[in-house]
Amino acid sequence: MSDAPQQVIRFHYSVAEVGQAPIEDSRKNGQPITMLTGVGGIIPGLEKALVGKAAGARFEVTVPAAEAYGERNEAAIQRVPKKHFPNGVSLRPGLTVMLPTQHGPRPVTVLKVGMSVVDCDLNHPMAGKDLAFAIEIVEVRAASAEEIAHGHAHGEGGHHH
Ligand code: ZN
């Protein structure tokens, strides 16, 4: 974390694997993303690119995997008993499922389905991928003392208590 004053940044984004069609586009949901800087709320390479920009700025930035969702870890392929998967999910190779873990739900990719076990890739689906973002900054303002204390943004697009 840097010593820079914390800010609240609202922005629209689309993200694609480099050279591919966009995977997500915030305009499809209508509302820009609201984030508080300095709390690790978004991938580090994107936060680095957002900080210091002014409202109205539009730019593209490529974030290497190491500053996005990390490099792939080939050791993160595991055989998981079927009973750990949510009921009613029809498991097939390539499917991404939210698997409950002791660290909370996390997305895993199904590789192979056996009788009682499932081979899974526990890497984040975006791990190992360089990501191309197109950004439009909607608003930049100083974070309030309350937002800094809570560790999240309030107001439009932020947390409501
Ligand atoms: Zn709060």
Task: Describe what this molecule looks like in 3D.
The protein is mainly β and 161 residues long. The protein has two domains: 7-69 and 127-150, Chitinase A, domain 3; 74-121, Thrombin, subunit H (Beta Barrel). It is built from two helices and nine strands, in the order βββαββββββα. It has helices at 44-50, 145-150; strands at 7-17, 22-25, 33-36, 58-63, 77-81, 96-99, 106-113, 117-121, 131-142. Strands 1, 2, 3, 4 and 9 form a five-stranded antiparallel sheet that branches. The protein has a four-stranded antiparallel sheet with strand order 5-8-7-6, with no helix packed on it. It is elongated, with a radius of gyration of 18 Å. The two termini are 26 Å apart. The model has no long low-confidence stretch (mean pLDDT 92). It binds zinc ion. Zinc ion binds next to loops.
Quick structural gist:
8% of the residues lie in helices and 37% in strands. By secondary structure, it is mostly beta strands.
Mean pLDDT: 92
In this entry the ligands are:
zinc ion
* Structural class category: mainly beta
- Global shape: elongated
Order of helices and strands: EEEHEEEEEEH
CATH topology of the largest domain: Chitinase A, domain 3
How would you characterize the largest beta sheet? 5 strands, antiparallel
- Unreliable segments of 5+ consecutive residues: none
Q: Per DSSP, what share of the residues sits in E-state strands of 2 or more residues?
A: 35-45%
Number of domains: 2
- Total beta-strand segments: 9
Count of helical regions: 2
Rounded radius of gyration (Å): 18 Å
What is the CATH C-level name of the largest domain?
Answer: Alpha Beta
Summarize the amount of helix as a percent range. under 10%
CATH architectural designation of the largest domain: Roll
Distance between the termini: 26 Å
